[in-house]
Amino acid sequence: MYLFIFVLMTTALQLQLQLLPQEPGVYQYFDKEDKILYVGKAKNLKKRVSSYFTKNHDNGKTGVLVKKIVNIKHIVVATETDALLLENNLIKKYQPRYNVLLKDGKTYPWICIKNEAFPRVFSTRRVIKDGSEYFGPYTSIKTVKTLLDLIKGLYPLRTCKYQLSNENISSGKFKVCLEYHLKNCKGACEGLQTEVSYNQQITAIRQILKGNFKDSLQNFKSLMQHYAENLQFEDAQRIKEKIEILENYQSKSTIVNPKISNVDVFSIVTDESYAYINFLQLSYGSIIRSHTLELKKKLEETDKELLEIAITEIRSRFHSVSKELYVPFKVDLGDQLKITIPKLGDKKHILDLSTRNAKYFRMERFKQVKITDPERHANRIMKQMKKDLRLHEEPRHIECFDNSNIQGTNPVAACVVFKNGKPSKKEYRHFNIKTVEGPDDFASMEEVVYRRYKRLLDENQPLPQLIIIDGGKGQLSSALKSLEALELRGKIAIIGIAKRLEELFYPEDKYPLYLDKKSETLKVIQHLRNEAHRFGIEHHRNRRSKSALQTELETINGVGEKTIVALMKKFKSVKRIKQATLEELEKEIGFSKAQKIYKEFH
Predict the structure, then answer these.
(1) How far, in Å, CA of 451 to CA of 412, rounded?
(2) Please, what is the average pLDDT of the chain?
């Protein structure tokens, strides 16, 4: 198919392909209106770009993209790392239709240490290039407030905006405010704290923001010991409280070996449409940053490609300079970074934690989308079911069958219908078994499947994309006989589900398929099976009740169907008829019949 496209390419496009260098770089595809369609990176520009025009693409969107390309531009760079960075910048700048969506995080909060005498420490969303230090960005304002509260509890800092130059302080221009009297500030504005002492606090704060608590703890412990030796017990107690605050915060933030420092951890979880990449930044064994990025797939991107895109974007967004990365599999990010794929110990522990965060974020997104965008939720479920169950098309219409009988009495069957993964109760059907004598599940299944689809064919009704049989290989084989008789074999996908181990059986497949117990596909199938079972039991119970009614009342001589209907209309159940007085019965059906029924039960 796409070889044909290659033949029909314009001479100009063919020439562009021939002239592409075999160097690393970035390529851009444009349509006939000179609108950018796609940006990609490559180790070898010529090989990568040519592959779009000389191979079949399983993904339909890729085929559509190739048809639209009328012009190719490229940029040669020195290394693959440079290509990755340039690709990231171009995607964010132009937002091409066929690229995964990357959003800039300019509104994240930072913690600023202001470039001034007696620096203030505060949160901001604006980064100003004035020599100030910025730590972050942080993904949660709650994290910022927690850190600022910690710093405020440990070190008294000024919050005023005075220009505390030596001239202004010595001239007595400023007076201490309420913060000084509350002991939240040491009064630098009146010269009550030296700039050297204040900057020592700033140095300690800088280390805490980097995740290093060791120096602050050591200084506080030395100071507490000094106060205790000089019998200044109130001051010693005050410092002890600061140590406890710091140690408590450290114990909550330190989750791995403190020797693991200056490391970025990335994990990825994907489904048919989206990828979720979690990022943890570690410093001195503490997680100082966590963020999960959601990427919408546009073409047939692999997990490796998506992770490389995400790592480049996240490190750029959060200005990470870590030289080592922990990842679940090998990625190509150049020679400047050390790539570690943990297998055991603390490193594997932190990678597993990152994966759990990605999965948790994915589940939270599912819950949100289920409420806010039901159509997207249904589309995702259908794509996942198609993949998990190895189907040729999405199972938008599913039907599930279940037999219900007790020791062969009143055999019935149920058929439940799901549309887009949800019950369509108005289309549920139940069947009374007509041609089978005794408890024969296989023959009963064969009968109801035949009756169901014979009717749909006769009435020219739409057929399902998937049939689920509640039972193992025997019930599945029986259902297949009916599909063959109706010439539907191969036109509708059909599977059986066995209750004990939740095994999925396929026609002519020796081994069952086992889905993850937590998979959404299995949950939908279980919901179908449970609905079929409930609906079948409900119908079976109604039939048995009717049968019991007939057995108990119709055996009474002189009591017919009209009498039974009149009594049931009034009393609702056989139990209440048995408990009724002679006068109550007589009022409804007359003395003669009332006397017969009353004598029967009393």
Answers:
(1) 13
(2) 81
> DSSP string covering 131-166, please?
S-EEE---S-HHHHHHHHHHHHHHS----------H
Of 26, 35, 25, residue with least CA distance to 96: 35
The whole-number pLDDT of residue 58 equals: 62
Tokens of 433: 């078994």
b/e map 335-357, b = 16+ CB within 10 Å: eebeeeebeeeebeebbebbbeb
Q: d(Cα 465, Cα 36) in Å, to the nearest integer?
A: 38
Say yes or no to pLDDT of 1 above 70: no
SS3 content of the chain, % helix, strand, coil (to 5): 50, 20, 35
Tell me the one-letter amino acid at 243: I
Other Cβ atoms less than 10 A from the Cβ of 436: the count is 19
Q: List residues bridging with 291 in a β-sheet.
A: 279
How do 263-270 and 324-326 pair as beta strands? parallel
Q: How confident is the model at residue 7 (pLDDT cuts 50, 70, 90)?
A: very low
Measured torsion, CA atoms of residues 534, 540, 544, 546, in degrees rounded to the nearest 10: 100
Who has greater pLDDT, 293 or 83?
Answer: 293
Task: Write out pLDDT tens, residues 554-580.
Answer: 667 777 777 877 777 787 777 788 888
Q: Which residue has the tokens 């199938």?
A: 525
Q: Is the pLDDT of residue 435 over 70?
A: yes
Percent of the chain's residues with pLDDT above 70: 88
Helix (H, G, I), strand (E, B) or coil at 79: coil
Closest CA to 2 of 59, 44, 48: 59
Comparing 536 with 182, the larger pLDDT belongs to 182
Other CB atoms within 10 Å distance of the CB of residue 132? 16
* C-alpha separations of 8 from 19, 32, 127, 304 in Å: 18, 15, 51, 32
Give the tens place of pLDDT for each residue, 457-471. Answer: 999 999 999 999 988
Q: Omega into 512 within 30° of 0, i.e. cis?
A: no
Residue type for 414, please?
A
Q: Supply the pTM of this predicted model.
A: 0.56
| Residues near 462 by beta carbon (within 8 Å), at least 6 away in sequence | 397, 456
CA torsion sign, 383 to 389 to 393 to 396? negative
Q: Average pLDDT, stretch 282-293?
A: 76
Tokens of 297: 């797939």
The burial class, CB within 10 Å (0-12 / 13-18 / 19+), for 99 is buried
Pair 265, 280: CB distance under 8 Å: yes
Rg (CA), the chain: 37
Residue type, position 288, single letter:
I
Cα(529)–Cα(404) distance, integer angstroms: 13
How far, in Å, are 101, 241, 540 from residue 238 at the CA level? Answer: 51, 5, 75
State the pLDDT at residue 585: 83
Starting at the earlier edge strand, list the strands of the sheet with 121-124: 121-124, 110-113, 133-135
Report the alpha-carbon distance of residue 464 to residue 566 in Å, rounded.
43
Containing H/E element for 422? strand 422-423
3-state secondary structure of 98: coil
3-class SS at 81? helix
Distance CA 549, CA 559 (A): 12
- For residue 375, name the pLDDT band (cuts at 50, 70, 90): confident
Q: Would you state the structure tokens that stand for residue 489, as one six-digit string?
A: 């074999």
